[in-house]
Design a protein that fits this description.
Elements: E1 18-19, H1 39-53, E2 56-57, E3 59-61, E4 71-74, E5 79-83, E6 90-93, E7 99-103, E8 110-117, E9 122-128, E10 146-151, E11 157-162, H2 164-167, E12 175-180, E13 186-190, E14 195-199, E15 205-210, E16 218-220, E17 224-227, E18 229-235, E19 239-244, E20 249-253, E21 261-262, E22 264-265, E23 273-278, E24 284-288, E25 297-305, E26 310-319, E27 326-329, E28 335-339, H3 342-346, E29 354-359
Parallel strand pairs: 22-26
Antiparallel strand pairs: 1-2, 3-29, 4-5, 5-6, 6-7, 8-9, 9-10, 10-11, 12-13, 13-14, 14-15, 16-17, 18-19, 19-20, 20-21, 23-24, 24-25, 25-26, 27-28, 28-29
Length: 362
């Protein structure tokens, strides 16, 4: 799931998704000139009413000063899980906008990427440090890089791996996103070095790939230079599709990572690209922040061709908040874009909540 990832933390205030549900009632008229509706008429009325009730609504989440960068949706519990760059926690968000702390692990400085791994009943969370969190080392930002695994029912930690201990390179790191293959292997991408990490189900980590194709080229004035990988999805064909902040995509065959190559796009994604969502048909929805332009964030549909060697890009929607940072699934097959108030976070301003906006993906 999920969503430079400016995501890089510059994204905007997030709206959490809400969907009203209801049951249509067919009325039987008793006054003169009105009789009971036919079965066909009643069925059409019920279908129309149910469709109306399932129309997604934008929802304001009540989590003050949470500042989420990404989130994911659990269909079984009808719940969103959102990270906090400020508190280093992960919260549950109900469709009515109620926010409750679910994971509060002292090892998490800032919780950026959040992925619900339903097959293994866990939540994966990337651990980062922009220097703005309650637990930050203010004078040494981007020195924390890790991924934690937490029980989906209790929020208890399974493991939390320190990826700086894997590289031992003394460089700045930012684990912008994580995805999971069907066998349970997790892959995490580093926004500040051209490194993809592989993490097995027990939390044992190694360097999966280093490649200059993944080197960051986008500069964010007065914040970060050389911003690279912002999002990642595992796709059919046992491949990783990696979004670069500059609007390009890179395809990495898992069995032959040395054969990584840039995807030939019909048009580049908007830059900085912030988040991805894998759709049921194997295509991808992407959100591109308007951070550098001040224009509304763009939702784009990316349709693969020739096994993801090529892809067609089409803008399908926009979000008024320029710094929208992620896209995720929602109830009834919907897609929501997250605006987490990250501009306020970086400016040192308080925030009274965040929002999710329903968006079109085709």
């Amino acid at each position: 799931m999920k969503k430079t990832k400016l995501k890089i933390a510059i994204a905007g205030a997030a709206l959490v998704a809400a969907v009203a549900t209801g049951t249509a009632l067919a009325a039987n008229g008793s006054s003169a000139g009105s009789g009971p509706k036919s079965g066909a008429e009643q069925t059409r009325t019920e279908q129309a009413e149910q469709a109306k009730q399932k129309t997604p609504s934008a929802i304001k989440a009540d989590g003050s000063n949470v500042f989420p960068h990404s989130l994911d949706f659990d269909t079984r519990s009808n719940t969103f899980f959102a990270g906090s760059l400020k508190h280093g926690t992960v919260s549950t968000v109900s469709p009515d906008g109620k926010v409750r702390t679910f994971i509060d692990d002292p090892e998490l400085v800032s919780a950026q990427a959040v992925l619900v791994d339903r097959e293994r009943d866990r939540v994966l969370v990337s651990n980062v440090d922009y220097g703005t969190a309650d637990r930050s080392k203010k004078d040494a930002p981007f020195r924390v890089a890790g991924v934690g695994s937490y029980d989906l029912q209790s929020g208890k930690q399974d493991w939390c791996v320190d990826l700086t201990a894997v590289t031992l390179d003394g460089k700045q790191h930012l684990i912008s996103d994580v995805t999971v293959a069907p066998d349970g292997t997790a892959y995490a991408v580093d926004e500040l070095t051209p490194t993809v990490f592989r993490i097995d189900r027990k939390g044992r980590a190694s360097v999966f790939l280093r490649n200059d194709l993944l080197k960051g080229t986008l500069d964010i004035p007065d914040f970060l230079n050389g911003v690279g990988m912002s999002a990642v999805e595992w796709v059919k064909g046992n491949q990783l599709i990696i979004a670069m902040a500059d609007g390009s995509l890179v395809r990495v065959p898992v069995k032959h990572p040395e054969k990584a190559q840039e995807v030939k796009l019909s048009a580049p994604l908007g830059s900085p690209t912030a988040g991805l969502r894998l759709l049921k048909d194997g295509s991808i929805a992407a959100v591109s922040s308007g951070l550098l332009t001040g224009k509304p964030a763009q939702i784009q549909h990316v349709k693969p061709r020739d096994g993801w060697k090529k892809a067609t890009v089409k803008v399908t929607d926009t979000v008024e908040d320029p710094v929208t940072s992620d896209v995720t699934a929602g109830p009834y097959g919907t897609t929501y874009a997250l605006s987490g108030g990250l501009a306020d976070l970086l400016a040192g301003k308080p925030n009274d909540g965040f929002s999710l906006t329903p968006v079109k993906t085709d």
